[in-house]
Amino acid sequence: MYKQTTRSISVTVRPIYLEDQSTPSDNHYVWAYQVKIENEGSETVQLRRRFWRITDALGRTQEVRGDGVVGEQPVLRPGESFEYTSGTPLSTPSGIMVGAYTMEAGDGSHFDIDVPAFSLDSPHQPVRLN
């Protein structure tokens, strides 16, 4: 699990390799990632936008931006949390994701919270010793 806290908002991510949806012989690898966003602060916030940077094992980068997450823009009051699961495919057996959520505070101001970088690892990646 990977966790990062920004402005009293914690984001925890757990990536899961999906063997049953992957076809290594066709260079198709799929992961789910479970995200939990917890408001540990004293102000109500709403998740407005997401940003992801996905990098495969060859260094190819893809950026994804959009409103909300999984079709929602959850409101988190102090002490509340929101969980969702999404996924991403890659053409390599490993990669890394990192991102940010744009939050809106009660006064209408916006701020970004970091999503921790997390690795996408499959059992099909070659093991290398340093």
Number of domains: 1
Distance between the termini: 24 Å
Instruction: Give Rg in angstroms.
Output: 16 Å
- The CATH superfamily turns out to be ApaG domain
Poorly predicted regions: none
Would you report the number of β strands?
9
In CATH, the topology is named Immunoglobulin-like
The biggest sheet amounts to: 5 strands, antiparallel
Order of helices and strands: EEEEEEEEE
Strand content: over 45%
In helices, the fraction of residues equals under 10%
- Output the structural class: mainly beta
Shape: elongated
Integer average pLDDT: 95
CATH C-level: Mainly Beta
CATH A-level architecture:
Sandwich
The number of helical segments is: 0
